[in-house]
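agent> step 3/5: call structure_predict on target 'Chorismate synthase' (Candidatus Iainarchaeum sp).
agent> reason: downstream docking stage needs a structural representation; sequence fetched in step 2, passing through unchanged.
tool.input:
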Amino acid sequence: MAGNSFGKLFKLSSFGESHGIAVGVMVDGCPAGLEISEEDIQKELDKRKPGSGIAGTKRKESDSIKILSGVFEGKTTGTPICMLTYNEDQKSANYEQIKNLFRPGHADFSYFKKYGFYDYRGGGRSSGRETLARVAAGAIAKKILARHGITIAGFVKAIGSIECKREFSEKQLEKVYDTELRCPEIETEEKMKELVKETAAKGDSIGGIVELKAFNVPAGLGEPVFEKLDSEIAGALMGIGAVKAVEIGSGFRAAKSLGSENNDQITAKNGKPEFLSNNAGGILGGISTGQDITARIAVKPTPSVSKKQKTINRNSENSEIEVIGRHDVCICPRILPVAESMLALVLVNALMEQKAQKLG
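tool.output (status=ok):
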């Protein structure tokens, strides 16, 4: 199976399955001398771990991370960093009754058509459990970005039809992980909670929108033609299993705007350029402008629902399925740190590429 690695200069390769012994990641290309600890990685992993919140799965995993290589006396050595966490709460027996049935909305059918085989226990590599590796690698990427003053934050903008229409500053997003559904607007989050409870009571799931921001990004990152910064970001975010659409800046709203409305006009203030708006989302011509980078992702409802659905078996015979087990009612709160990590990984690579292209 190809496609298990991401990045060029700063590269990760993830491994492991949802119901396997462990999941982990190998990070290559991290500069030597970066201070990093298991506590730094754990802090990020705790933001996505299962077993908490009204929207999340009831599967209990500590996600305790172990750094196996690449770090000595609290600093990176410049060699590959291998990180691992053992699975602790697999209940594979939940899948025995449906192991020959394709779960609607899952990758079972497409994996079977590609490989003639698939891991029916929670989806194997297609499970959201694989994203633990991305968050672990993203924790290192965030540390590198922080040394350059770049920070990344986000929030759950919408769950179903309940949407937060406000814009938030970097300061306002600092404590977003103190909220249960990762929405910093209290009134909206309370409505979201009610919707999640109603959906769970029906044995169903629901999707939403997550918004991301990268602050203090310098101008000049990204390539102008085939490796535009926005296309790299879009590809990275679309690579998250539950994501079905990506917007940069004004996104689909740009299609309904006039050019004079969508253009970000520029003025000079104290001899420095200043944009009057940010419909471009901080990227023009595939290259960062120095404004905050803004992206949004559309997250589909978790496909595992207890409602009876039509499907087929491996012999293409009609059947029905009810998926039992422990699944997220809404994946948005747990996908936020994953999306932040993917954005961080793109920016680290872009930052390294830019430094490699400039003398001095």
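agent> step 4/5: record observation. The domain at 5-357 is CATH 3.60.150.10 (Chorismate synthase, AroC fold).
agent> proceeding.
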